[in-house]
Amino acid sequence: MIAQTLIDRFEQFASPQIAEPGDPIGLQLGDPNREVKAVMTTLDVRPEVVEEAIEKRVNFIFAHHPMMFHAAHNLNLSDPQNAMYAKLLRHNIVVYGAHTNLDNANNGMNDWLAEQLNLSDTTPLLNGGIDPNTGRHYGMGRVGELAHDMTTDQFAKYCCDVFNVRGLRVISPKETHLIHRVAILGGSGGQFYQTAVQQGADAYVTGDVSYHVGHDMIAHGLTVIDPGHHIESVCKVKLQSMFIKWAAENSWSINVLASQLNTDPFSFFMRDN
């Protein structure tokens, strides 16, 4: 199987046309006509992930976050990012990034996150449009109902458990209430908190909330849980399962691996008192 075969099948699932404008999705590096024997799914393409791919004889890295958010201005290999590109080229590894098209796709990233919270009756948080492949409405984020009501503290602990994080940030207004209806948007979704309020969410789960936006969330009476950007790593096993299924359906002779590395740049330091 060549890399383009998997790309074509994936783009039937998550069309490039439903990506956000200007998002640098798609083929990032390498020859799409290269023969592929092993694919590795990952959240991020970092030097340690590339080393993992080389060690496991991977031909194709399929990532959620694009490897090239910013264009290279030179090929100075003393720069770690450029050195990573050179290593990928030396080892003939194809790299593809599926970012906001996967975020927007039905049964994609935000459905996977909503499933982790066990939300029911989910609908898109944001209005995206009509998917040209399926004719169905799409949109980023999800809003749905918890199986049972929770206090803010209970919900924060629940999020730690389901997302397997050691800690998270909680934004809580003075007047708290039980949480039943929840909005979630993977990645950096702080700017969309007012839509969560308009959709009747008691709590909003998203990453990378900034200081001043946090104040605005409190003013709107919205409880917000920020478990970080890395919860999107659920994509590794979800994409792996999807590709294994497609391989069986299409008789592709490929091995599909999920990266075993944690690429979260943040850790928590806990003081003694």
Automatic annotation (TrEMBL):
Cross-referenced InterPro entries: DUF34/NIF3 (IPR002678), DUF34/NIF3_sf (IPR036069)
MF terms (GO), sorted A to Z: metal ion binding
Gene3D superfamilies listed in its UniProt record: NIF3 (NGG1p interacting factor 3)-like (3.40.1390.30)
SUPFAM superfamilies with a match to the protein in the record: NIF3 (NGG1p interacting factor 3)-like
Keyword Metal-binding: yes
Keyword terms of this UniProt record: Metal-binding
Keyword Metal-binding found: yes
Top-level taxonomic group: Bacteria
Residues that coordinate or bind a divalent metal cation 2: 64
Entries under Pfam families matching the protein: DUF34_NIF3
Any one Gene Ontology cellular component term annotated for this protein: cytoplasm
Binding positions (a divalent metal cation 1): 65, 103, 229, 232
Family: Belongs to the GTP cyclohydrolase I type 2/NIF3 family.
Protein name: GTP cyclohydrolase 1 type 2 homolog
Lineage: Bacteria, Bacillati, Bacillota, Bacilli, Lactobacillales
